Amino acid sequence: MAVDWQDKKSSFEVIDVRNLTNNFLPMILRQAQKVDLNSGLCVVQSFEPKPLYSALNDLGFEHVTEKVSDHEYRCYFYRTEMNTITYESGADMPFKPTAILNYKVISDILAGTVVDFWEQVWETEDAAIDLKTKLLLSMSNAMGASRFRQATRELIKAYSLGVTVRELDELFTLLAWNQGIGHFSSEIGPSPTFAVYKLIKTKEQKGLGRKEILDDIMERFGDKNPDVSVQPRGRHQPRGR
Predict the structure, then answer these.
(1) In the chain, how many domains are there?
(2) Same domain, 122 and 133
(3) Pick from 143, 129, 240, 239: which is nearest to 197 by CA?
(4) Domain residues for 114?
(5) Where are the alpha helices (DSSP H) in the chain?
(6) Which of the listed residues 150, 162, 198, 204 has the most CB atoms within 10 Å of its CB?
(7) What is the pLDDT of residues 85-129, one digit of tens each?
C-alpha cells in the first residue's frame, strides 16, 4: 500500500460519525463518490470501522487508520482510482453490518470486539468459501432458528451478488425437507424471507433485470421495514435509511 499521500491528510474532509446511531454507510459512500482522484476524506469513529475498508477499497481508495484513544479512531481514505459502485463489486451490497452500532451503545470496546469477529467471518483473505455461499449458509442457519430478520438480509445480499432463482428453489426445497412441512407452512411460508423469494421469482418471470428487482426489494424490505431492520426505532427516531 502506498503511503506517500499521508502528508496530505490534514486537508481531507472530516466526517465524524461517533454520535450517529443509524446506518451512516450510505452517507459516507455518497461523500466518497464525490472525492476527486488523488484526494481523500477522514472518517472518525469510536471503534475501528473495518467494514468501511472493503467498501471504499472497491471505490478506489487506500486507507490508513490512526488510533487516537480508546474511543477515537481516525481513518484516512485516499483515492487512487475512480471506480464506481456496483452491487456485484460488493461496495454497494445491501445491509452492511449496522447491527454493530447497537454494541457501541453498550461499549466502544465491545463494538470493536464484534467488528474483529465480523472481519474474521466475512472479510477473511483467501477465504475457502466464497461470499455468496457463506451468505446462503448463514441464511439457512438463520431460517432453521426462525431468525427471519437475519435470513431476509442474507438472502437479499446473496441475490445482489448473483444467486439465481434455481439456487433459491433448491435451497427452499431443502428447508422444507429439513424443517418439516408443518414448520415450513406455519413459519417459513409467511416470513419476510419467503416474501422476498417470491418477489424475486415473480419479477424475473416478468423479465425484469436484477438491478431493477433489487431496487424494488430494498424499497419494500430495506431498513425502513421493521421486520428487516436491525436498528431500534424509538418514538422520535427518524425513519430514513
Answers:
(1) 2
(2) no
(3) 143
(4) 1-126
(5) 25-33, 51-58, 100-106, 108-122, 131-144, 148-160, 165-179, 181-183, 192-205, 210-221
(6) 150
(7) 665 555 557 887 888 989 999 999 999 999 999 999 998 888 999
